[in-house]
Design a protein that fits this description.
Elements: H1 10-20, E1 25-29, H2 30-33, H3 41-45, E2 51-56, E3 59-65, E4 73-77, E5 80-81, E6 102-108, E7 122-128
Parallel strand pairs: 4-7
Antiparallel strand pairs: 1-6, 2-3, 4-5, 6-7
Length: 145
């Protein structure tokens, strides 16, 4: 049996992406998200500097960037814009998005000319995990008492 390992690239890659961004951007990788007991995307995002969440019925639901209204935040999944499910409300409730399906969360705090004009407050891109290119076997050793 040959055992090969790879170095975790998640948060290191995210920090590199932040460094090379043309605007003010925060990127959080799944390995960093997994260190906290957050269940949904807004819960994980509230740990990023400059982001607050609006709570509804005790759950973090809407995202606010730098104090701007949640209606001024654009939300995309894998780069595709997500429209509001309600006709009269612009903000998007993200409390139903579990962090287990996310690879990275990219927050653009300053818009650039290539972004939609409705992202006045900023933009949040939720990047989902993809299937691996090869078979992966994870082995966990049970903790003995």
């Amino acid at each position: 049996m040959i055992v090969l390992g790879t170095r975790a690239k998640g948060q290191a890659k995210a920090l590199n992406q932040q460094l090379n961004a043309i605007n003010i951007t925060n990127v959080v990788a799944s390995d960093q998200i997994g260190r906290f007991p957050d269940a949904s995307a807004p819960d994980a995002l509230q740990r990023v500097l400059g982001i607050t969440t609006t709570r509804d019925q005790g759950e973090s639901r809407f995202i606010q960037i730098h104090g701007a209204s949640a209606a001024m935040t654009s939300v995309t999944f894998n780069g595709e814009r997500v429209p509001s499910p309600e006709g009269d409300v612009r903000q998007i409730a993200l409390d139903a998005v579990p962090v287990d399906v996310l690879e990275t969360i990219e927050v653009a705090k300053a818009i650039t000319p290539d972004m939609d004009a409705e992202a006045i407050g900023g933009s949040v891109n939720l990047v989902t995990k993809r299937a691996p290119d090869q078979q992966i076997l994870y082995v966990n050793r049970p903790i003995s008492e």
